[in-house]
Amino acid sequence: MHVSFKFDTHYEFDKLKQLAISIENKSQDRPIYVDWDYCSLTDLDKRSRRVTRLPPGTTLDLFQNQVFSVIAPGKTLKETIAAEDMLTRKGEDGGMEVTKTVIDLSKPDSKKPDAVKKRYKEFVEGKIQLHFSLYLALRLAGTNASPTGDRTQVLCNFTLTKLNWTAGLPWNPRKKK
């Protein structure tokens, strides 16, 4: 199995609103199931949040269980995901849209704890990196597995680094990977 994510090389503080994940099943005879309801995304305060798969063109109901995804042997699953608390209802049709960022990097107001203000200041000054993570819950099915599949967790760690202001100059173009 191979797990990867698609990112731009640069992001402004308020632009990372979802994660594009790709999971490749390298097995030739065993499917992999992704149990979205058992996956979680942490924030900077290590608060765990439910992962929501964002299927294109469908209306989400956050109160219902999410259907697991099956990755056939030798195939790849590509999905867009976000944390449940990043979504807001839009319009009367009950559809959901991503309105918040994966990680809140906005300047903290005076009501925030001093630790949050200090973390923000040190990150903006380039003194520290910030970290968050995604826990993927996968089930491996096959002849040697239990009837419901053997569940395993995959931890994906992410590191945010503040780039120097010169990275945003016109002669330093933002290339996509």
Structural features, described:
By secondary structure, this protein is mainly beta. It has one domain (2-104, 130-167): Immunoglobulin-like (Sandwich). The chain is built from 1 helix and 11 strands. The strands form 2 sheets. Strands 1, 2, 3, 4, 5, 6, 7, 10 and 11 form a 9-stranded antiparallel sheet that branches. Strands 8-9 form a two-stranded antiparallel sheet. The longest helix is centred in the C-terminal third of the chain and has 11 residues, at 114-124. The chain is globular, with a radius of gyration of 19 Å. The mean pLDDT is 86.
Radius of gyration: 19 Å
Termini distance?
Answer: 21 Å
DSSP strand tally: 11
Oligomeric organization of the protein chains: single chain
